[in-house]
């Protein structure tokens, strides 16, 4: 029973992650077995590291599911509003009117910093966009129109010139529209002959319907890679990395209502950032692991050992 045996659950998760990574490598390199050597694998050691790094980037690109830009902008706007007047204000996710209008078409502001991004077409026509061509980029107001940022392309800049659309169109996992000048020579060549996809993730989703099994697999692999990164930080006793992981995990702990762990992580981070005396801060950051066997890379988490001891003496 994995639920009652943390080490077994951890080993199983590592096994599943390694299996998925191996499957991706075999598929991406067009191999028939795990023992086959890729035809383009270089001979020089430095070139081999570059080759592996590129393959790893392709894997992360495939499984990465970025948060919604709308959510990021809305959170930033809420934080700015709270800082400016000291009071919490309701930040609606879209439009000037801050109202629901079922069935009405939404128009997108093309600024990457716009706090709302989407606007009702009727509201747009009565505000700043009534004289703009529907085929041109639209901006909700002077601030967004002059900030120089762009909602599309990886550059996020208004460079002008010809744009290329990802073959997944509005379902694109990344930026949907790209400046042709921002694409590599290989990407531009592919775009001229076949339907072009901006990433491996979009290419695999180009079959039409949403592939929920693929999305689940990608989520499992993403969590598995995060687990391996955390494990490496523990094995190396990397206090800075472990502290960063605690910061990122606070969002997950709050959303899943693990309030006791959330409070503990908040206390840890605030203490390390300056609430505790310097000696205590140093101890909390760099003495969070134990090495029971005294071997290189043999560190284990102090929290895990404490949990195992609690279960042992219950």
TrEMBL record:
Keyword terms of this UniProt record: Metal-binding, Zinc, Zinc-finger
Record InterPro entries: Znf_FYVE_PHD, Znf_PHD, Znf_RING/FYVE/PHD
Regions annotated as coiled coil: none
Record-annotated Zinc finger PHD-type domain positions: 94-145, 152-203
One GO MF term: zinc ion binding
Protein name: Zinc finger PHD-type domain-containing protein
Source species: Notothenia coriiceps (black rockcod)
Taxonomic lineage from the root: Eukaryota, Metazoa, Chordata, Craniata, Vertebrata
Encoding gene per record: LOC104947877
